[in-house]
Amino acid sequence: MGERFLTPGDWYFGRGDLQLRTVLGSCVSFVFWHPGDRLGGMTHSLLPSRLGGAKTTRRDGHYIDDALYLILRAMARHGSDPRGYRIHLYGGGSMFPGVPSTPAASIGQRNVEAARALLAAYGLRCDKTHVEGIGHRKLILDLRTGAVSLQQATLSANPSSPDYP
């Protein structure tokens, strides 16, 4: 079985003997799986959208809105209807426990809010979420079966704790 590791800005859609893997902190990931068509995909996005609303014709998976557009376009190329997919949303963790609330400290929450709003705008229902909280997540999607494996590592808000990086 092959593996593909998604870094921030990456996304993949397809089928086959492949596992998609990623590690999420404040970033978010959409996971799609169609049990009948045996097609699936995953995104790894850093920010809700381009800062300042900059417009470009080139879509970029670093942004949640672009990543969702790109994966939906890939579904369309396969002749697949997004409403037939099981959709999961992961990530958006706080990576700075104990830090007073600032825009940087709340990016995970903003990412989750943006991802949920986008799904709603496209008329898509999320079947499963594992979002926010403290720490990072290791995520694996098996494209043969649609099985998702998730491990979450939490950070302590106490810098003297052995769990603190």
UniProtKB/TrEMBL annotation:
CDD domains: CheD
Keywords for the protein's UniProt record, in alphabetical order: Chemotaxis, Hydrolase
Domain of life (superkingdom): Bacteria
InterPro entries: CheD-like_sf, Chemorcpt_Glu_NH3ase_CheD, Cytotoxic_necrot_fac-like_cat
Class in the EC hierarchy, top level: hydrolase
Catalysed reactions, semicolon-separated: L-glutaminyl-[protein] + H2O = L-glutamyl-[protein] + NH4(+)
SUPFAM superfamilies hit by this protein: CNF1/YfiH-like putative cysteine hydrolases
TM stretches of this protein: none
Coiled-coil boundaries: none
One Pfam short name: CheD
PANTHER family membership: CHEMORECEPTOR GLUTAMINE DEAMIDASE CHED 1-RELATED, CHEMORECEPTOR GLUTAMINE DEAMIDASE CHED-RELATED
Family: Belongs to the CheD family.
Name the record gives this protein: Probable chemoreceptor glutamine deamidase CheD
Organism of this sequence: Pseudomonas benzopyrenica
Species classification: Bacteria, Pseudomonadati, Pseudomonadota, Gammaproteobacteria, Pseudomonadales
Gene name per UniProt: cheD
